[in-house]
Amino acid sequence: MHALLDALRATVGDDGVLVDAHDLATYERGWRYGAGRARAAVKPRTPAEVARVLALCREHGARVQPMGANTGLVGASNPDTSGAMVVLSLERLARTIEVAPVDGVALVDAGVTLSALNAALAPHGLTFPIDLGADPQLGGMIATNTGGTRLVRYGDVRHNLLGLEVALSSGELVSRLTRLHKDNTGLDLKQLFVGTSGLFGVITRAVVRVVPKPRQRVATLACVASGEAVLQLLATLQAEVGELLSAYEAVSREAMQAVLRHGVYERDPFGGAPPAYAVLIELSTGLAPAVLDLGAALEAALAAHLEGPHADGVVDVLVGRGEDFWHLRHQVSESLREEGPVLGLDLSVPRSQMAVFTEDVQRRLAADFPAVRVADFGHWGDGGTHLNLVLPRDHGDLAGLKRALQDRVYALTVEEYSGSYSAEHGVGPHNLAAYQRFTSPAVRAACRALRATFDAEHALGTFDLG
Amino acid sequence: MHALLDALRATVGDDGVLVDAHDLATYERGWRYGAGRARAAVKPRTPAEVARVLALCREHGARVQPMGANTGLVGASNPDTSGAMVVLSLERLARTIEVAPVDGVALVDAGVTLSALNAALAPHGLTFPIDLGADPQLGGMIATNTGGTRLVRYGDVRHNLLGLEVALSSGELVSRLTRLHKDNTGLDLKQLFVGTSGLFGVITRAVVRVVPKPRQRVATLACVASGEAVLQLLATLQAEVGELLSAYEAVSREAMQAVLRHGVYERDPFGGAPPAYAVLIELSTGLAPAVLDLGAALEAALAAHLEGPHADGVVDVLVGRGEDFWHLRHQVSESLREEGPVLGLDLSVPRSQMAVFTEDVQRRLAADFPAVRVADFGHWGDGGTHLNLVLPRDHGDLAGLKRALQDRVYALTVEEYSGSYSAEHGVGPHNLAAYQRFTSPAVRAACRALRATFDAEHALGTFDLG
Fold first, then answer.
1. Nearest CB to B181 within list A382, A450, A465
2. Which residues in chain A touch residue B241, judged by CB atoms under 8 angstroms apart?
3. Where in chain A is the domain with CATH 3.30.70.2190?
4. Alpha-carbon distance A421 to A419, whole Å?
5. A25 to chain B, closest Cα gap in Å
6. pLDDT (tens digit, 9 = 90+) per residue, B362-418?
7. How many CA atoms lie within 13 A of A318 on its CB side?
8. What tens digit of pLDDT does each residue of A447-462 get?
9. Nearest residue of A to residue B156, measured between CA atoms
10. CATH 3.30.43.10 occupies which residues in chain B?
């Protein structure tokens, strides 16, 4: 190992190789899940250095854990507990942000953060349209195929990716940094690295699609009486202003009550009684106000709903500042953690099933796990729900309870509602049991074949998709 | 072979197995390229029958050519010249079109045609947003990842595909007909079958994303002085009304002159002198006229351009009916064929390079192939150009000339402009030499691994991506 560390230092510089326990701590523990022990953390500065680091690790038989900003939510960025793995951090591979407005793209190093990319795009009036609470690196966003609150408008990372460069565990650099919006020449290689947790290769650079920053944005909070009514309102908005809809986030009463109890806000807009669902509706557009009055468009759409057959489902529409509504929405996760231990489940079901599914899971958990409180909130516009389960503080076997709940809800979601146990967080040790249970033999066979092609020695990561 | 034919008849019915030369002719020759001889054509009616046909062919050692509507442009849907292959036509697998408006999707059999799908969607106010001259089947569209004239707005087929079912050559049916708009659980299996010409499996059903049919559509024809000016006008439109832009098609003078000579139209809108580029600009929206006046939006955007620094590039903006402008655009390919033998090249380059690239290729071909006329037209909004080369009728070796031109232009496109030799038509025998020349070893290694996994005996198709 000493020979490897010396060779790594010669490659990335002395300050690019960390071995002290204190320095390694932040690389060993994940944002929400995942904890292990690393032998070293290595911080290459260029794609060539990443490739060289991988070649050296292979030569010395060291396994490698790639890591972006370590903000993932499935434990896929942390080393195992062996203490033998090398963490390959992309944090210093963050020098290139090349904006090409006419091409509608940006070329970025994998270690560039989402906020840094958007800061570089802002002077051009452009943005990378993936909207998240965290500030991940681009490489990590691709490896987990990040979703976020504006997926309903712009799609996920996959939809906004044109070119990719990947370092294979052999030390080979595979570069396809295309700026082409269409290129239909057989297998689209980048798709193999999107959402596969860095297990087939380490992403070093990417070409992403960038879009005009909206000139107008309006948001309101609708107080809605039921899950069914949330879907009815969504249907009206999609028919009337669907192409302007950039977020449709529903927060359940249980979740909003937690925000009102523990959050920071100027005033409670619900007068102490939050509705069954508080729905944050956001419209945005790149059109100038002279061409389209966005506020009027939202008002007209809401008026259409309130004149229609499902008007009763909407109890109130709050007037206020969009940022205040977003502020409430963004405090849900943290506030729930104040209520007790939380198991966060990142689910999706066909959009038409959202209300029925949510009621069903609540009913079943109430029967079988009466001490567990269901607080759901999420992206109803795209069929995604973060079903957060608040657990009793005094439960004797919290880990066992979490596993039992995960098993139960995942099975219900996948088997009875044709849903997903991981709508946008990806796959990692945290939900690997579900992956193994619900993934088809064909997918796993393809993964085995690809792993054998790109990382035959299984040097990358701590788990397997095969 | 007789035993196989009997078994096939027992599976799909007597009327589902064709063996007479007369009946087979339409399956043996492609729309533009591709010609071979088939032993039989088989027409299964269900996914299970497709799987059974494949299993039977495997059992009897017969190779299989899957075929949709046979409208592809790279010769990938026709059998080879051995006379031994079985054509598996999906034309009767066309019974299911299940529209789910709340989910925003439709479940379709692979043999359903684009026009049939859109006819079924129309009563719901929905459409499948891939716009083409031909009327292919959905399975073929997925296997070739079709683009079309509205890609700038809606993306290609890949962007509008949620779920897929595939029959492997083993006879196994792999079904992942998900309606989820997000599902982030590792490798996205469907991506392996998009654009890979049916070589890994035969697509039997799909879930596609459907979108609201536009309530308003306006189009105009701008007469533009140069390729650079086409890009300048595009930049203004993207800044002002980018999210409304649904087509941006530029037809060169050479191509438009052919339309005026051979086409069918009421009147020549250019008074005998078409501009360097006639640019068809289309805006569309699902918003009601009361919310957005689309005609006024287009006028405002054009006015902004005509008041800007690049006003000189726009010679004229024609007033007229959108369908008349589209009618001219859609006659380009046919009209050019009246001028002489045509080699159609389906290219893309980074959008910023479109003008420079087009001039460069014209200059180089003029020098080296003076008898060849370059007539370009295409989707400048997404960096795509159909560079059609009109060849001398009396050339002694037309096939040799076509190969030489293909080689020359493909190399220029890919090697000097980081472009694509197949922007939207996919890969087939017609451009296989380019595939072999320009595809990276990593992509080919992945294809070999996937072929070995899904079709180890190479029973499907007439070529290989490995």
1. A382
2. 287, 291
3. 216-332
4. 7
5. 28
6. 999 999 999 999 999 999 999 999 999 999 999 999 999 999 999 999 999 999 999
7. 24
8. 999 999 999 999 999 9
9. A182
10. 2-89
